Amino acid sequence: DWDEERRRLLASTLLQEYIAEQLSEERVIMLGDLNDQIQEPETTNVFMPFLSRPQEYAFTTMPIALNPTPNTVSYPSYNSILDHILISDELFTDFAATGNLCRVIRVENHVGGLSQYYSTISDHRPVGLRIQAY
Asked: Each residue of 22-50: b (16+ CB within 10 Å) or e?
């Protein structure tokens, strides 16, 4: 009845409710190591409180999650993306504008390789978002 996935589902539910109740007209960006995959089936997806409302929320990391490669994922050890960026509908138009993007930043290319990065910084790569809000 209680496990990490249940805890993450509850956290998603509470976060979605908070955004809807307290920030309903605000431009919201929620990001971080959410420690789960967004492309899982509905029955096991801890992000359904957001994914079930596509008119209100979008994961800018979804294209990466649907097409993972060793060079595009935030968690290379498992060829997956567990670090996500979610935006509210107030940012949809801004994000869709030309030149805006979301991608994993391959920091290891600047610190001596992936093993050096793992041993000194993190086992996750950062995810970046470029968006110009008007």
From this structure: eeeeeebebbeebbbbbbeeeeebbbbbb
From CA 110, how far away is CA 114, in angstroms rounded? 10
DSSP β-ladder status, 127-130 and 83-88: unpaired
User: DSSP string spanning 86-109?
Assistant: EEEGGGHHHHHSTT-EEEE--GGG
**Residue range 107-134: average pLDDT?**
86
Q: What is the DSSP letter of 131?
A: -
* Token representation of residue 123: 């086992």
Where are the extended beta strands (E) located within 1-134? 29-33, 57-59, 83-88, 101-104, 127-130
| Threshold 0.85, pTM exceeds | yes
Q: What's the confidence (pLDDT) of residue 1?
A: 63
Q: Taking Cα atoms as reference points, which of 104, 100, 44, 98 lies closest to residue 80? A: 104
The token pair that represents 51 in the structure block:
């994914």
